[in-house]
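Session log. Operator J.P. requested a structure for one protein chain; no other inputs attached. Running the standard single-chain path with C-alpha cell output.
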Amino acid sequence: MFTNITLRTILKSSSAILRESCGPVSASPRHCCSALLSGPKVSRVSGSFVSPPLVRQYARTSKKKDPGPQSQLSDLPPTMLKKDYAAVPLAQTTDGIVKRLLSLELANHTEKLRLKTEQLISKVQRDENDRTSVEVQVAILTARIRNLQEHMLKHHKDKANKRRMLMAIDRRKKLLKNLRLVRYDTFEKVCEQLGITYTFPPEYYRRATRRWVAKKAFCLKVYQEVQKMKLKKKAAAAAAAAAQTEAKSQ
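Structure written below.
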C-alpha cells in the first residue's frame, strides 16, 4: 500500500514538472519536445530540475584504419603489361580497352606476383637464360616469403601457409650460407639487390628443459663453491708462508 502511494506521488510530481517546462497545455507537442531538447531547465519548484535528454552519438568520428606495411606489389605500375604479353609487339599498338585488359590494372594477384618474381630474378641472374643458379633460387624464394608474410599479417591463424613460409625461410638460409662460403662477393651483391639482412645462425642450440636448467644452476653453484675453497686455500698458504718467513727472521 505504501509503495503504491509513493509511486503515485512521484508520477504526479514528474507530470507537473513537465507541464511547467513545456508551458501551458494548449501548446503544441512539437513546441514541448523542442523545449525539452533545448537543454535542462530549472522548474519553478525549488530544488527540482528537468534532466537533459539522452544524446545519441550519430555524428561519431570514424576510426582511421591502420594501413599496415607496404606491399611488395605496390611499386608495380597499373599500366604495365602482363608477363605473357610484355614481349608481344602487337599488344603495344592496340586500343585503350584491349590494353587495359592486358595490363596489370585488371590482373589478379598471381599474375602480379609472377611479374614481381621476374623483376627480382633479373636483378641477380648471371645471364638472360639463367634459371637454375643459386642466385635465381634465392630471388624466387624471396618473392614467395614476402608474399606469405603479407598473407600472414591478414590471416594470422593460417597454420599451413605459416609452415610453408618457415620452410622457405630455412631453404633460403641454407642457400645463402653455401653461397657465402663459396663466393662471398656474389653473396653480398644478392643481399644488397634483394634487400636481405643475413643473420648468422647460433653456434650451439639446446632446448632449455626444466631438468637441464636445474642441472646447469647446480653446476654453477658447485663451481662457485670450488672457487671459494681454492681462494681460501691460497690465503691460508700465503699466511703460512708469511709466518714461516717471520719465524726465520727472528
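Operator note: The chain has three domains: 1-53, 72-106, 108-194.
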